[in-house]
Structure to design on (299 residues):
């Protein structure tokens, strides 16, 4: 007997909740901000809008379904099931934070602060939640399959991301490694840089676009559903022992970029989730490419 669908409501602590956690009470938080020429009123209003959206989404879950909530900080410890319908209530970035833990479950993005968020991934309002939950489980329901990027280490560690994967030093040191196409004979080009970024079409609205603009790249940015990635090396340093001939490129389906570590430690993380990173050490290698899984975003 199959399980009833489970609505998983993903949210994150609001700025107001973070202020209360730091200062203890509303009054103390208000005093802290007012002493710096700011008011707590707008922060509290955004908190109220987020809480109201959560209540409306929770009320829209069908009575025959199961439901639960998970906070952003707990995503790496939460077990998503194949029957889940994931409802992200918050900002665009929260969808990306959630995507790396999913394996094809439909995702509904609910914007808690229209006009403040770009609304690229959280495209809907809380009032639409009931119809969207129905569409997420209906046969032939409309959804976009957004391309994701993956990093697979030689010890089988794997990480996927919706926007981008970053590989680099854990602090402000220089990362040393060899870089080249996966499957190429030879060790690849020795490089010293502040890291490598591999991004998707969804990431082309964020960090990837920033690098693309900075370089004046002539490569076309991919669309969110395009099976195509762009990659850039950040601040590659030329020296007698390190080169800069491979600092940007494109990856299609089946193609890969291989990085072999030549420093004490390199971290690999996706979509800004630094607390949930892979750690690689001297001699280890990692392959970057298009992930087999994609994000099913209900439209």
């Amino acid at each position: 007997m199959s399980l009833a669908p489970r609505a998983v409501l993903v949210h994150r602590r609001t700025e107001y909740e973070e202020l209360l956690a730091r200062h203890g009470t509303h009054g103390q938080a208000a005093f802290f901000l007012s002493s710096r020429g700011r008011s707590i009123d707008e922060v509290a209003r955004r908190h109220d809008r987020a809480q109201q959206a959560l209540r409306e989404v929770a009320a829209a879950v069908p009575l025959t379904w199961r439901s639960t909530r998970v906070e952003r900080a707990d995503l790496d410890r939460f077990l998503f099931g194949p029957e889940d319908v994931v409802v992200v209530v918050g900002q665009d970035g929260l969808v990306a934070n959630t995507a790396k833990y999913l394996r094809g479950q439909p995702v509904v993005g609910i914007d808690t602060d229209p006009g403040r968020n770009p609304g690229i991934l959280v495209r809907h309002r809380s009032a639409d939640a009931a119809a969207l939950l129905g569409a997420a489980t209906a046969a032939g329901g409309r959804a976009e399959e957004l391309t994701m990027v993956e990093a697979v280490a030689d010890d089988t560690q794997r990480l996927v991301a919706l926007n981008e994967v970053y590989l680099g030093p854990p602090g402000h040191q220089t990362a040393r490694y060899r870089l080249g196409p996966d499957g190429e004979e030879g060790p690849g080009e020795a490089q010293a840089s502040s890291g490598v970024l591999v991004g998707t079409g969804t990431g082309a609205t964020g960090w990837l676009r920033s690098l693309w603009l900075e370089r004046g790249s002539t490569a076309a940015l991919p669309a969110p559903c395009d099976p195509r990635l762009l990659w850039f090396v950040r601040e590659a340093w030329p020296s007698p022992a390190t080169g800069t001939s491979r600092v940007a490129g494109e990856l299609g389906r089946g193609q890969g970029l291989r990085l072999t570590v030549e420093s004490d430690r390199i971290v690999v993380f996706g979509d800004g989730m630094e607390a949930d990173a892979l750690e690689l050490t001297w001699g280890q290698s990692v392959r970057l490419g298009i992930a087999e899984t994609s994000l099913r975003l209900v439209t």
